Amino acid sequence: MAQQESINLVDFVKRFPNDNACRKYLFKMRWPEGFKCPVCGNGEYYLLTKYHLYQCTDCNHQVSVTAGTVMHKTKVPLLKWFLALFLVATDKRGCSALTIQRHIKVNYKTAWLMLHKMRHAMARQDQQYLLDGLIQLDEAYFGGPNGKQGRGTEKAVAFVAVSTAISEDNQAIIPLFAKIKLSDKLSMQTVKDFVVGAIEPGSKITTDYFGIYNSLNDNGFKHDKYLSGSPECNQALDWAHTIISNAKTFILGTYHGLAQRYLQAYLDEYCYRLNRRKWVNQLFPRLLNACVSSSTFTLAELTG
Ligand SMILES: [Zn+2]
């Protein structure tokens, strides 16, 4: 599967010299066994070269390689999409819209929307998995840029869960995967909503003594708790604390003066990168795959 390939800049330039090469790659990604009409399942098509559409010989349905993906009906040439995806995938600290705008020559709004579409695809991809095993769970405040006042700049609260495992040499606890989800408030109900959507039932969840976590046992989890602020608690929640601090740095480092309505999208990007840090050389085909498997949305849906 293409997803496992690692592609460096030299490979990229060789493999994707133009839009046509990108289109061929997407065709193979969508239909690895050959074309299949999404309406009737027929395997034969006429190619409408001018519009890059594939028309089913049976039901006449017309489909493009980007239909139903985040690149659907895009005015941005495919090669620019591929370049933007490559830049995002290869820059560990994340890419700002300004960087994309400069590198691929699109206007700022286009670059900004492309990035949000990628983040949407990243979030969708991570929603398919639940955390399991030994989980550290904590809450944290994000956002609220320094010196800014007014609506939308208040700090937002989020739940942070990290799955961990014992290292191979038995010497340390290592983090595996993380999820961060903003919540409108801190309550037993919001804890339940978060854990049910993020963590496999039966997992062991470690928290501090905060009362909102008291119903974890009732919700089908094993609950282990420590006195807040004690050295034992700090150790038991060490990876949750580290990830909270790194997520804050990630957001501040790349995205200054971030509006709170987009905060979840940036936290999703942070988690997506963290969860794939071991496959960093494969991030481009993985991200491309995420964008192909995820449906699109419009600017109105994003900002509305
Ligand atoms: Zn058909």
Architecture blueprint of SSEs:
Blueprint (H helix, E strand, L loop, with lengths): L8 H7 L3 H12 L14 E4 L4 E4 L5 E2 L14 H13 L6 H8 L3 H20 L6 E10 L11 E12 L6 E11 L4 H11 L5 E5 L13 E5 L4 H6 L1 H17 L8 H13 L7 H11 L5 H5 L1
Parallel strand pairs: 4-7, 7-8
Antiparallel strand pairs: 1-2, 2-3, 4-5, 5-6
The site of zinc ion (ZN) has 8 residues, from loops.
Describe the protein's architecture and organization.
The chain is α/β, with parallel strands linked by helices and 304 residues long. 40% of the residues lie in helices and 17% in strands. It is built from eleven helices and eight strands. The strands form two sheets. The chain has a five-stranded mixed β-sheet, sandwiched between helices. The protein has a three-stranded antiparallel β-sheet with strand order 1-2-3, with no helix packed on it. Strand 5 (155-166) and strand 6 (173-183) form a beta hairpin. Helix 5 crosses helix 9 (263-275). The longest helix has 20 residues, at 108-127. The model is unreliable at 147-151 (pLDDT under 50). Bound molecules: zinc ion. Zinc ion is lined by residues 37, 39-40, 42, 56, 58-59, 61.
Give the fraction of residues assigned to helices: 40-55%
Residue stretches low in confidence (pLDDT < 50, at least 5 long) are 147-151
The strand order across the widest sheet is: 6-5-4-7-8
How many strands in all? Answer: 8
* Mean pLDDT level: 89
Distinct small molecules bound, one entry per kind = zinc ion
Major sheet characteristics: 5 strands, mixed
The termini sit apart by: 37 Å
Classify the beta-strand content into a percent band.
15-25%
Helix and strand element order: HHEEEHHHEEEHEEHHHHH
Overall, the morphology is elongated
Discrete helix count: 11
The Rg value, from CA coordinates, equals 22 Å
Structural class: alpha/beta
